[in-house]
Specification:
The complex is a heterodimer of chains A (458) and B (105).
Chain A (H helix, E strand, L loop, with lengths): L3 E6 L3 H12 L4 E4 L24 H5 L2 H6 L5 E4 L2 E6 L4 E6 L2 E12 L3 E3 L12 E3 H11 L1 E3 L3 E5 L1 H12 L6 E4 L3 H7 L3 H4 L3 H16 L4 E2 L3 E7 L5 E7 L2 E7 L2 E5 L1 E3 L2 H6 L3 E4 L4 E4 L12 E3 L9 H18 L5 H19 L2 H7 L4 H4 L6 E3 L4 E2 H9 L4 H9 L12 H11 L21 H5 L2 E2 L1
Parallel strand pairs in A: 1-2, 1-6, 2-3, 6-20, 6-23, 8-16, 10-11, 10-16, 11-12
Antiparallel strand pairs in A: 4-5, 5-6, 7-17, 13-14, 14-15, 18-19, 21-22
Helix pairs in contact in A: 1-10, 5-8, 6-12, 10-11, 14-16
Chain B lengths: L6 E3 L6 E6 L2 E6 L4 H8 L5 E2 L5 E2 L12 E4 L2 E5 L10 E6 L11
Parallel strand pairs in B: 2-8, 4-8
Antiparallel strand pairs in B: 2-3, 4-5, 6-7, 6-8
The chains are: A alpha/beta (458), B mainly beta (105).
Chain lengths: 458, 105
């Protein structure tokens, strides 16, 4: 017996578009999201910000129709709902207001999106160091803006947030880019294909122009990053620029090094994963319809590989169309016509991806931080401790966890898995293929034993 | 003395919520996450780790578990994932969560 036709986990661009397409086709949908409202991180608080000044640009406003489209009686929505277990037999266990419920469906769509890549350097755990994404969440959800922040790192979001800060009259104190000339050279080979998505390239170019004309000081190809605490809770940030050791003192250091898929749920169910060499992250293996190796489990959006929010909307539509066809809700003609149209649009949207992956490549010092750097924030374990363990014969992530506790904290490896993998790759004779995606186990978010013992059937 | 906030409040909502934050009565707009209110109130840290290191909110989206505080006696609460409520009592979390013995549960 099932309660719904589809359970969709995540109400971001992919989840919202999948939900509205499925509901319009006549399926009963349960849409769950951990945040207080729909939108994901990209369109966070879009409903509330409708009347505010347009600091966030037109791309942000375009999320409004997605949020409106999920107001439909075929979609049951729960926010502040934390999914902590998903089973192969398509049962989802989720916590809401301190109570856990079980819901079952014939199809499950994972649309859990992405998280920012861990960006370890000495001092990245200090109060006053936050992620660029977190600052944008605060701007969107609470109307609070960083004061004279220094932005450091790489990736499209770094430039987007810098322009949003400029528009809100809180420009960054400085912009430090880890991108090197070599990365730019390497990306040139992918430029011709990227030209098929001219709109994104122009957008990026406009960001840079806006930052330049606002007079924000830019330091390019910075390396050997280090943060120290200074008086009054300030951060003294040291870095190497053109061979000279420089430092900047700031209240707030905002860091960003691209995003990686959130794969906790797919890894916990037993979906096969592969290593994406250009994005340096694990991603679930799916077919062109978003189907996984487990019957009835589908994946859409950035949690299956980073392609951005526009692509996520299309992936959500594609998965929902496939499920509509499989459940006999739409004709073969409609299904093929729709999917051809979606796949064409995806081809153009995604044509810029390899170029972006290469031009914003992850610098070596982030993949292999210095020994003093904390790698596991929860358990306060350094790179040196992990290396020592590996040199003493520890094999694999699991032994590493039980021996030195790295990855055993509350975040369950979300903030260290990526770095630990690259340290393992460097310190052992293993190659890319022999290091498998680390296991994830339920409960995927900490819940109390008391709550677990009182689970109700939804 | 507590340090100044590292953020500027540009959007002010009118509906206010009163609650206790680190021993001080605070008024903040309805619908804000607790972590956002802590950040805009002062530059103070959120918690102390087991070794005594100070930490503040980091990712603001429920991933990093750095913004843990004690809310109405519940330790290990992710302040970025909950909205503020009237009469809430928020305390700084020191060290790991303590095991408590509940007679009713």
């Amino acid at each position: 017996m099932t309660d719904y036709d589809i359970i969709i986990i995540g109400a971001g661009p992919a989840g919202m578009s999948a939900a509205s397409v499925a509901a319009n086709g006549g399926l009963d949908v349960l849409l769950l999201d951990e945040q207080p409202d729909a939108g994901g991180q990209v369109y966070r608080n879009i409903k509330q910000n409708e009347t505010e000044q347009n600091w966030f640009g037109n791309d942000y406003s375009s999320g409004k129709h997605l949020v409106n489209a999920i107001n439909c009686n075929k979609i049951t929505k729960y926010f502040n709902a934390t999914v902590w277990r998903v089973e192969k037999n398509k049962r989802v266990i989720w916590s809401h207001n301190g109570e856990s419920k079980i819901s079952a469906a014939s199809h499950i769509v994972l649309a859990t999106g992405a998280q920012e890549r861990p960006f370890p350097f000495p001092g990245w755990t200090l109060p006053g160091v936050m992620t660029v994404g977190s600052a944008q969440i605060l701007m969107k959800s609470s109307g609070i803006f960083p004061k004279e922040a220094v932005l450091v790192g790489s990736g499209p979001l770094l430039y987007l947030v810098a322009t949003q800060m400029i528009d809100a009259n809180c420009p960054p104190k400085a912009l430090l880019e880890t991108q090197t000339l070599r990365m730019m050279m390497n990306s040139l080979i992918h430029l011709p294909k990227a030209l098929l998505n001219m709109k994104s390239l122009i957008k990026g170019f406009m960001f840079i122009q806006k930052i330049k004309s606002a007079g924000v000081p830019r330091y390019k190809s910075v390396s050997r990053l280090k943060a120290q605490s200074s008086e009054n809770g300030s951060i003294k940030f040291l870095f190497l620029h053109k061979g000279i050791r420089r430092s900047l003192t700031t209240k707030l250091l905002l860091i960003h090094q691209g995003v990686i898929p959130s794969t906790e749920i797919s890894r916990s169910i037993g979906v096969d994963h592969s290593w994406n060499k250009s994005q340096l992250a694990f991603q679930p293996i799916i077919d062109k319809w978003g189907k996984t190796n487990i019957d009835g489990i589908y994946i859409a959006g950035d949690c299956a590989g980073i392609n951005g929010s526009n692509a996520a909307v299309l992936y959500g539509k594609k998965v929902a169309t496939k499920i509509l066809y499989e459940t006999g809700k739409v004709s073969f003609y409609f299904y093929t016509k729709q999917s051809l149209c979606i796949r064409t649009r995806l081809f153009f949207t995604n044509s810029v991806r390899l170029f972006l992956d290469t031009i914003f490549a992850v610098p070596q010092e982030i993949l292999l931080p210095s020994d003093e750097t904390i790698v596991c924030r929860c358990e306060e374990k350094t790179v040196g401790e992990v290396k020592l363990g590996l040199n003493e014969g520890i094999c694999g992530v699991r032994q590493l966890k039980t021996s030195i506790r790295s990855g055993m904290g509350l975040c369950q490896g979300r903030m260290c898995d990526a770095t630990i993998r690259s340290i393992m790759l460097h310190n052992t004779s293993q190659d890319d293929k022999t290091i498998l995606a680390p296991k994830a186990r339920s409960p995927l978010k900490p819940i109390t034993l008391g709550e677990m013992s009182k689970i109700k059937k939804d | 003395m507590k340090p100044d906030s590292k953020f500027d409040t540009l959007v002010k909502n009118t509906k206010d919520v009163n609650f206790t934050l680190f021993g001080e009565v605070v008024t903040a707009p309805k619908g804000s996450t607790l972590a956002a209110v802590i950040l805009s109130h002062s530059g103070d840290t959120f918690r102390q780790t087991e070794t005594g290191a100070l930490r503040s909110a980091f990712c603001m989206m429920g991933v990093c578990f750095e913004c843990l505080v004690e809310v109405n006696g519940n330790q290990n609460t992710q302040s970025c994932m909950i909205l503020i409520e009237d009469k809430m009592v928020v305390k700084r979390q020191v060290g790991l969560r303590q095991i408590e013995i509940c007679e009713n549960d």
